[in-house]
Amino acid sequence: MPGALEQLGRIWTIIPDARLVGGAVRDLLRGQAVADIDLACAEPPDRVMAKLKAAGMKVVPTGLAHGTVTAIIDRRPFEITTLRRDEETDGRHATVAWTQDWREDAARRDFTINAMSCDSAGVVHDYFGGQADLAAGRVRFVGDARLRITEDALRILRFFRFQARYGRGQPDPQAIAAMTDLAGLIDRLSVERIWSELRRILTGPEVVRTLRQMHDCGVLAHVLPEGCDIPRLERLLACGAPDEPVLRLAALVAGDARAVARRLKLSRAETGALAHARGEPVPCPDLDGAAILRLLADHAPRDLLWRAWLRQADVPGHPDAGWDALRHQLAHTQPPVFPLSGSDVVSAGCPPGAVVGQVLGKVRQWWLEKGCAPDHAACIARLRVVLGEGATRAT
């Protein structure tokens, strides 16, 4: 994180005891790029804010109830959180108190690989064996797995996500036993938090293996009670489908996709994408150019592409058989636009009203049958024919 070192140095000048915590330390030890830089310190949040402001920094009170403030340096955010201990928790929310004990703060974190901290001298403070676990590819809860889960049941889903990314071999047996016994706690979580974790699992590594582990623990039944088709998702991935979470969800869900979208409170865009992916018509490799144009005239290219991926996943052995060529054509063909509008119909002598839409629909149907090839002039000529036929019937 070369660009952030100078900015971190400014923070350490103001708050010398601050340490990097969580994922930043884990990823630095792995030699990976650090996305978010989080720090912790022993001073209470009001004093942290006062010190930063006195030094001329922009400070945002992003989560004072949990001891978090955000320093903005050259548009880069640095979260700084006061050391905490949990006073009370209901499995979803925790009441915290400040502490000056770094080990006590680390003890409330989820996994050993996330419980390390690093001071300004580059010394890593590791109270629970996180470095050894990281090197060995072990994902373990800090302390008692059951206690960590009862503090926040979302840690069940986080375990599987981290196991897929950082774990090697079989998951920690103590964690598996605890998650199997406490899987029902997932039902208490907000569906927004569940979907946030599930979408990361769906786009992360080892998707199929992770979902099977979740199924074996009884966890997946609480995440997607509508039912799952893991083999179908596996076939989709084998086809080389993109890592779109909603597309993968469309393959995974065995029940009513709209019911899933409502229960998980997917965004409007995600709900529409899920429904359209499971919709009709489905393009197939034997379509000619005119048929593809007709499809593109009425359906978004992405919807057609996703339907093609899902249909290929349903083919035994998922052979290519022209699917890649079809998707290339769908992705690189300009969707045709019907050249007429209601004003053209009125200008041609049709009285305003519902009949305008009916006439326009007839011309558009003819345009579709002609492979969307007729231009504006040809459609105007056809419009006159349709209006003439209507006049003839009226007399």
TrEMBL record:
GO terms for biological process: tRNA processing. Its cofactor is Mg(2+). The keyword S-adenosyl-L-methionine does not apply. Keywords: Magnesium, Metal-binding, Nucleotide-binding, Nucleotidyltransferase, RNA-binding, Transferase, tRNA processing. GO terms for molecular function: metal ion binding; nucleotide binding; nucleotidyltransferase activity; tRNA binding. Residues 18-140 form the Poly A polymerase head domain. InterPro entries: Bact_CCA-adding_enz_type3_sf, NT_sf, PolA_pol_head_dom, PolyA_RNA-bd. It holds the Pfam family PolyA_pol. CDD domains: NT_ClassII-CCAase. Residues 172-226 form the tRNA nucleotidyltransferase/poly(A) polymerase RNA and SrmB- binding domain. Belongs to the tRNA nucleotidyltransferase/poly(A) polymerase family. This is Poly(A) polymerase.
